[in-house]
Amino acid sequence: MFQKVTDYFNSINWSHPATISLLIILGGFFLFSILERFFPFKKGLPYFRKGYFLDLVWYTWIQSILMGIVIFSLIIGPVRNALNLPAEGIISHWPLWTLIIFFFITHDFYIYWFHRWQHHNKWLWRTHEAHHSVEQVDFIAGSRSHVVEILINQTIEFAPIILLLDVPTGILVKYIKASIDAIYGQFIHSNLNVKMGWLGYIFNGPILHQWHHGDQVEVYHANFATKLSLWDYLFGTAYNPDRKPDRYGVWYRFPRDWFAQHIFSVYRFNVNKVENSSGLKWYFNLRLNFLRMFLKKRKDVSASVEKRLNEAEIYGPKPELAEINDQ
Ligand SMILES: [Zn+2]
Ligand SMILES: [Zn+2]
């Protein structure tokens, strides 16, 4: 067994950009997990907050891996082959840092406007509402994005990199860019009290983006920037008051499950009714039920653990929203 583990680690190519990128993302995961405990923006946010497993397992792992295959192997790769592009690339002779800055700024400018459009157009909002449905925002919350949103944004982000560069440079730039995206996404969503000072007028930070996730009318159309807050200041959409948002999420009842969230984006159903139906209720509480079964087996379910499990199951809508949703 030990030999097998050693062989596995020896077989990993540690200098491959994909391995380095994965290690950087994991490093960010541990770093922000710790920093959020010590320097929280909103105090009292539990580590295992509402939707933690949905975001980590479904959106961060399963969806990212599947979408990576779709975007690179089924879309960009075949397009590159069909276009018969020069093997040496069109702008591969540019210095690496120029390429990174060029792709960083152009994509960020695009995403500012697309994001702004998503907030203004009722059909595009369907591809973005899942991202806003997180009710407790931490560094993992940024991973919650509808598949169509990922498909559009990442194809537009990575196609120019793969199409304009030779293969080795394209792969290198792709992983550098993906690492920057992941770490920056963790940073702006993190529940961290970071005062950016004058840098905040150029680079986006957690407070501006925590506000963007606020379920408050004053920020429904503000703080669209991803990496450069400069766009918000230039185009008059920055909102940075000297207080904290009261609540996060969307103003209507939103499903809590990956499949239900995607179905809901094309077909509106009564979330309360569906999630409270007996069969689905069991499915929605699968993780808790397994935990309960495990704890019961060990005969050590204390009253406080049982109480917490029951509380976790109560996932009702905010009272003031329940009536609107039932209409
Ligand atoms: Zn948004
Ligand atoms: Zn966000």
Per-chain topology:
Layout: H1 2-11, H2 17-38, H3 52-83, H4 96-120, H5 122-125, H6 129-132, H7 147-164, H8 167-189, H9 206-212, H10 230-234, H11 258-266, H12 271-276, H13 278-284, H14 286-297, H15 303-313, H16 319-326
Bound molecules: zinc ion (2 copies).
Describe this structure in words.
It is a single chain. With 327 residues, this protein is mainly α. It has two domains: 13-234, no CATH class; 270-326, no CATH class. Helix content is 62%, strand content 0%. It is built from 16 helices and no strands. The chain has helices at residues 2-11, 17-38, 52-83, 96-120, 122-125, 129-132, 147-164, 167-189, 206-212, 230-234, 258-266, 271-276, 278-284, 286-297, 303-313, 319-326. Helix 2 (17-38) runs parallel beside helix 8 (167-189), helix 3 packs parallel to helix 7 (147-164) and helix 4 (96-120) crosses helix 8 (167-189). The N and C termini lie far apart (59 Å). Residues 312-327 have low confidence and may be disordered. The structure holds zinc ion (2 copies). Residues 131, 142, 189, 209, 213 line the site of one zinc ion (ZN). The site of one zinc ion has 5 residues, from helix 4.
